[in-house]
TrEMBL record:
<dbReference type="GO" id="GO:0006065">
    <property type="term" value="P:UDP-glucuronate biosynthetic process"/>
</dbReference>
<feature type="binding site">
    <location>
        <position position="210"/>
    </location>
    <ligand>
        <name>substrate</name>
    </ligand>
</feature>
<dbReference type="InterPro" id="IPR036220">
    <property type="entry name" value="UDP-Glc/GDP-Man_DH_C_sf"/>
</dbReference>
<dbReference type="Pfam" id="PF00984">
    <property type="entry name" value="UDPG_MGDP_dh"/>
</dbReference>
<dbReference type="InterPro" id="IPR001732">
    <property type="entry name" value="UDP-Glc/GDP-Man_DH_N"/>
</dbReference>
<feature type="binding site">
    <location>
        <position position="35"/>
    </location>
    <ligand>
        <name>NAD(+)</name>
    </ligand>
</feature>
<feature type="binding site">
    <location>
        <position position="263"/>
    </location>
    <ligand>
        <name>substrate</name>
    </ligand>
</feature>
<comment type="similarity">
    <text>Belongs to the UDP-glucose/GDP-mannose dehydrogenase family.</text>
</comment>
<feature type="domain" description="UDP-glucose/GDP-mannose dehydrogenase C-terminal">
    <location>
        <begin position="320"/>
        <end position="423"/>
    </location>
</feature>
<dbReference type="InterPro" id="IPR008927">
    <property type="entry name" value="6-PGluconate_DH-like_C_sf"/>
</dbReference>
<feature type="binding site">
    <location>
        <begin position="155"/>
        <end position="158"/>
    </location>
    <ligand>
        <name>substrate</name>
    </ligand>
</feature>
<dbReference type="InterPro" id="IPR014027">
    <property type="entry name" value="UDP-Glc/GDP-Man_DH_C"/>
</dbReference>
<feature type="binding site">
    <location>
        <position position="86"/>
    </location>
    <ligand>
        <name>NAD(+)</name>
    </ligand>
</feature>
<feature type="active site" description="Nucleophile">
    <location>
        <position position="266"/>
    </location>
</feature>
<feature type="binding site">
    <location>
        <position position="334"/>
    </location>
    <ligand>
        <name>NAD(+)</name>
    </ligand>
</feature>
<dbReference type="Pfam" id="PF03721">
    <property type="entry name" value="UDPG_MGDP_dh_N"/>
</dbReference>
<protein>
    <recommendedName>
        <fullName>UDP-glucose 6-dehydrogenase</fullName>
        <ecNumber>1.1.1.22</ecNumber>
    </recommendedName>
</protein>
């Protein structure tokens, strides 16, 4: 079986490599020539645990190819996945220009029946727009080649993307064509050896499922951040409350960790986009509006605690920051809370020395430029700093040498934005720790 994956970013590259790993012949296509050249030379454009190994292995075996030529890639392919970006437009709605450009190009270049499956996160009705763009391009050629569209939203998490793709909780397929359904079933068979994982539905429902899933997860996080902030005021412990509610299977113990707010390339943009979709249909998604508002405020909580401790004016002060990426195990800086915290500290007159195990290049080149001093390791960031701010919970920050930390910092003072440190234990070592709602 042969497929093409158009867009070789987090989703396209992981999906393409994982499909190749189960024996499918895959061509990953991108318009970014440099990215394609790098991949052909075994250089990964992103940091994702386990990815390099399966990309290199499958490229060497010839099952995984990289190309900038979409026409060639879809020759003989049963499925063309669209996995390009859908960034927020100015009004918050998902910008479909990349998705529709690919659909148009497929229509121009296809030579046989093909299933065009959208993996990008797209609002309801996009399936029809994709169908229209392909049909339009075929009409211009005077062609009536048959094709099908499908919606196959992706649920992988960055930092665990390969694992998530190879062992999915579920595979959602929105489809309205029997032949396409059979092809998708064959394609995904290897990913459900431990039990049926595919949920078939109509295309609009599949599109909506993706937004509803991300919105539900974002809601859990904002809810818990709200509760943690209240815990702090009333003298309760958010860690205890988390365990107490998470043990109820109706609530579940995942995605209820309070912190400095959710970031990344998905939750912020997808919550915005579904709010916008609802507005277009004359409906207000009030819960999600609150989820977004709470999250915007939560990104300021750590800097506010710094100011509450030292005062509003932080002139001449230096803060060490551990972690920049929006979550551990990724170099992705998109919508990372670190950016908001850094801006706030700088606006109050402080300087920031930062260390992140993998995201510093990305931060330097695209996001924070020279807003912070980038340090060689975690301890280097602490030298002469007035306090430590823990922003991303990378494993290597969990058990540092407290003796060294205490010697390097000017004050034994920590602002823990992810609740990874034991306040009571650190108190015995002379540290004062502020965090998100725990005692
Ligand atoms: N990042 C995630 O964890 C994740 C998970 C699930 C779903 N999604 C969704 O998947 C989509 C892609 O996200 P991403 O993070 O992989 O994006 P990305 O920005 O990492 O990658 C998109 C790629 O598409 C390429 N591209 C753009 N136009 C193209 C064209 N006409 N032809 C070929 N290639 C083209 C870009 O050069 C880029 O390499 C988005 O809709 C996103 O919401 C992302
Ligand atoms: O209890 C929690 C869990 C997560 N987060 C934060 O939430 C954000 C998102 O984390 P996560 O969901 O793990 O990473 P993403 O890679 O953004 O994955 C989400 O977005 C993807 C893109 O749509 C979906 O495919 C995934 O299923 C969905 O989890 C990060 O800033 C985390 O720090 C918390 O603050 N508390």
């Amino acid at each position: 079986m042969k497929i093409a994956v158009v867009g070789t970013g987090y989703v396209g590259l992981v999906s393409g490599a994982c499909f190749a790993d189960v024996g499918i012949e895959v061509t990953c296509v991108d318009i970014d020539q440099k990215k394609i050249e790098k991949l052909k030379n075994g250089i990964m454009p992103i940091y994702e645990p386990g990815l390099e190994e399966i990309v290199v292995r499958n490229y060497k075996s010839g099952r995984l190819n990289f190309s900038t030529d979409l026409g060639e890639a879809i020759q003989g392919a049963s499925v063309a996945f669209i996995a390009v970006g859908t960034p927020p437009g100015e009004d918050g709605s998902a910008d479909l220009k990349y998705v529709l450009a690919v659909a148009d190009e497929i229509g121009q270049k296809m030579t046989d029946y093909i299933v065009v499956a959208t993996k990008s996160t797209v609002p309801v009705t996009t399936g029809e727009k994709v169908r229209g763009a392909i049909k339009n391009a075929l009409d211009k050629r005077g062609s009536d080649l048959p094709f099908a569209v499908a919606s196959n939203p992706e649920f992988l998490k960055e930092g665990a993307a390969v694992e998530d793709f190879l062992k999915p909780d579920r595979i959602v397929i929105g489809v309205d064509d029997e032949r396409a359904e059979e092809i998708m079933k064959r394609l995904y068979k290897p990913f459900q050896l431990s039990g049926e994982r595919i949920i078939y539905m109509d295309i609009p429902s599949a599109e909506m499922t993706k937004y509803a899933a991300n919105s539900m997860l974002a809601t859990k996080i904002s809810f818990m951040n709200d509760i943690a902030n209240l815990c702090e005021k009333v003298g309760a412990d958010a860690n205890m409350v988390r365990k107490g509610i998470g043990s109820d299977p109706r609530i579940g113990n995942k995605f209820i960790y309070p912190g400095v707010g959710y970031g990344g390339s998905c939750f912020p943009k997808d919550v915005k986009a579904i709010i916008k979709t609802a507005k277009q249909y004359g409906y207000d998604l009030r819960v999600l509006q609150a989820v977004e508002d709470v999250n915007d405020d939560q990104k300021h909580v750590l800097a506010n605690k710094v100011k509450a401790h030292f005062g509003e004016d932080l002139s001449g002060m230096t803060f060490a920051m551990w972690g920049l990426s929006f979550k551990p195990n990724t170099d992705d800086m998109r919508e990372a809370p670190a950016g908001v915290i850094i801006d706030e500290l700088r606006a109050a007159g402080a300087t920031v020395k930062a260390y992140d195990p993998v995201a510093m290049e990305e931060a330097k080149e695209h996001y924070l430029f020279d807003k912070v001093t980038y340090c060689n390791d975690a301890y280097d960031a602490l030298v002469d700093a007035d306090a430590l701010l823990l922003v991303t919970e990378w494993s290597e920050f969990r058990i540092p040498s407290w003796e060294v930390v205490g010697k390097l910092l000017k004050n034994k003072l920590i602002f823990d934005g992810r609740n990874i440190y034991d306040k009571k234990y650190l108190k015995t070592l002379g540290f004062e720790v502020y965090n998100i709602g725990t005692k």
